Amino acid sequence: MDAPPLDFRLHLGAGRTLSVSSFAGEPLVIALFDDAQPFGPAEQLDRARAELRGLGAALLALSAHGLWCFRPDDETQLLAPARDLDPAAVSSLRAAYRVPADVPALILLDADGCVRLTDVGLPGTHATPDFTHLVNRLAAAGQAVAAARPHGFTLTRRQVVLGSLVAVFAAHAFSGCHRAAPPPAVAAGARGDLAVTLDVNGQPRPVRIDPRTTLLDALRERLGLTGTKKGCDQGQCGACTVLMDGRRVKSCLTLAVAAEGPAIVTIEGLARGEALHPMQAAFVAEDGFQCGYCTPGQILSAVGLLAEAGGADLSDDDVRERMSGNICRCGAYPNIVAAIQRARREAAKGG
Question: To which CATH superfamily is domain 194-348 assigned?
Answer without folding.
Answer: Beta-grasp domain (3.10.20.30)
